[in-house]
Design brief:
Elements lengths: L8 E8 L3 H12 L4 E4 L11 E3 L6 E3 L11 H10 L3 E3 L5 E6 L2 E3 L10 H15 L21 H5 L6 H14 L9 H11 L11 E3 L2 H13 L2 E3 L4 E6 L4 E5 L4 E9 L10 E3 L4 H9 L6 E7 L6 E5 L4 E10 L2 E8 L10 H9 L9 E4 L19 H5 L10 E3 L12 H20 L1
Parallel strand pairs: 1-2, 1-12, 2-9, 6-15, 10-13, 12-19
Antiparallel strand pairs: 3-4, 5-8, 6-7, 10-11, 11-12, 14-17, 14-18, 15-16, 16-17
């Protein structure tokens, strides 16, 4: 897909980034009759999703974003149906481990019966607050939701829960968002409850994955777009000159465009020089960063007798589950909340983290990608910090002259998910097409 860029060429639209948002934006731009060039700094497409083989093995794994829920994610559902993408499911676990309140429980449900009434009231309160959010209708920072844009720990402490129930509630966003609960906006966390349909959606595990992987899906969309996709082509600067936008690559080549769609994640905006400087919301988010810093590790252990699932709050891994069992053994997928908690390249540290849940486990091999130090991501999926939703989310959907922004961080619905990336790509392409139509 790559080819050399000629100096100072002219196109209708430049899309920066070839993940789901960029692929959707490119497709909808070409369908509107515009010439499109997609510039991707990596040597591959698919952005913060990446389907490849486990190092040294034949087993394919998702080292980035993975799961979808088409029944609850309308944009994913539309694209899956459009391209005829088949789905397959993660295995249903039959063995459990819960690391909460300083203990490890292997019960199917770890909360003692005496705590159920208070937990039920807490779930009802969360569902009630979730019903206040109008998902997809407008940016997440909607009028009247200020009281929810606080640290999630602060919100949970108003629910009157016993220690086990408190840890149980806090553990879910610790792995779902890849950040410590005190660093998370309760409004963003609760918006996912809105999206799931109820608080119990957190506990109904996501299982659906794409046959052929995320990368193959992005390649299908880009092929449909017919856009000129150029890999290993990082962008250095984007200058809106009024009637045109000048995009300069790190190698010094220039492309003039009538519109630019930037799909780089929030935490990587600092790798591009924008002129004029970005509006307040963009500048502030680019400086403050979003909080997602998960460490995703794939671990190969001798074959387990039954499929396993574990969640913990004070454990190193906040989530660990068996995904595949082959003649190699069982491949576990695990998440830690932050890179400071685990050196994922240290076999002993990885084995120690696994043994918190599976005491007799022997790690045969492990594999990971360091998204936090990947220059084109500098973090993982979207996790709004307290106060950021109400302050910035609306501004993040407003074009900057001829420069438009799209990525899953900026979604009104499933911010941080593949569905959010698609939503954002659709919106940016429409904004761009409307501009060029004028």
């Amino acid at each position: 897909m790559s080819k050399p860029i000629q100096s100072t060429e002219t196109v209708d639209v430049v899309v920066v980034g070839a993940g789901f948002a960029g692929a959707i934006a490119a497709r909808d731009s070409t369908e509107a009759g515009h010439t499109v060039v997609v510039l991707e700094g990596r040597d591959r497409v698919s952005g913060r999703t990446w389907y490849r083989k486990f190092e040294g093995k034949e087993q394919w794994i998702e080292v980035g974003g993975t799961w979808v829920a088409p029944s609850q994610q309308p944009h994913v559902k539309t694209e899956v149906e459009r391209y005829g993408i088949e789905l397959f499911q993660s295995p249903e676990p039959r063995a459990f481990a819960w690391g909460i309140d300083g203990e490890m429980s292997n019960a199917a449900f770890p909360i003692p019966a005496a705590e159920w009434p208070a937990l039920e009231r807490a779930v009802a309160r969360i569902d009630q607050d979730a019903d206040r959010i109008r998902l997809y209708e407008e940016p997440l920072g909607q009028e009247g939701l200020d009281d929810l844009d606080i640290p999630f720990t602060e919100y949970v402490d108003t629910l009157g829960l016993a220690p086990k129930s408190r840890d149980f509630i806090l553990a879910w966003p610790a792995f779902y968002f890849g950040a410590y609960p005190e660093k998370l906006s309760a409004l963003h966390v609760i918006s996912w409850v809105t999206a799931f349909g109820s608080c119990t959606g957190w506990f109904t595990l996501l299982t659906d994955k794409f046959v052929g992987g995320t990368t193959g899906f992005v390649e299908r969309i880009l092929a449909d777009a017919g856009a000129d996709v150029r890999l290993n082509t990082a962008v250095a600067s984007i200058d809106d000159e009024g009637e045109q936008v000048r995009v300069t690559t790190r190698s010094g080549e220039e492309i003039l465009a009538k519109s630019v769609i930037v799909t780089a994640p929030i935490n990587a905006w600092n790798t591009i020089q924008f002129t004029p400087e970005l509006p307040t919301a963009y500048r502030a988010m680019g400086e403050e960063k979003q909080a997602g810093e998960s460490v995703k590790v794939w671990v190969l252990v001798p074959a387990l007798e039954t499929d396993f699932y574990g969640v913990g709050l004070h454990t190193t891994f906040k989530w660990i589950a068996s995904e595949y069992t082959t003649e190699d053994g069982t491949y576990l997928c695990a998440f830690a909340s932050a890179e400071k908690d685990l050196d994922a390249t240290d076999p002993d540290a990885v084995e120690a983290a696994v043994r918190e849940f599976l005491p007799d486990a022997k790690v045969l091999a492990s594999d990971t990608h360091d998204w936090n130090n990947d220059e084109f991501s500098q973090g993982t999926w979207m996790a709004y910090r307290p106060g950021q939703v109400m302050e910035y989310s609306a501004g993040l959907q407003v074009p900057h002259g001829r420069i438009h922004f799209a990525n899953s961080d900026l979604a009104s619905g499933w911010a941080g998910w593949i569905d959010g990336a698609i939503e954002s790509g659709l919106r940016a392409a429409k904004q761009s097409n409307d501009l060029l139509g004028k």
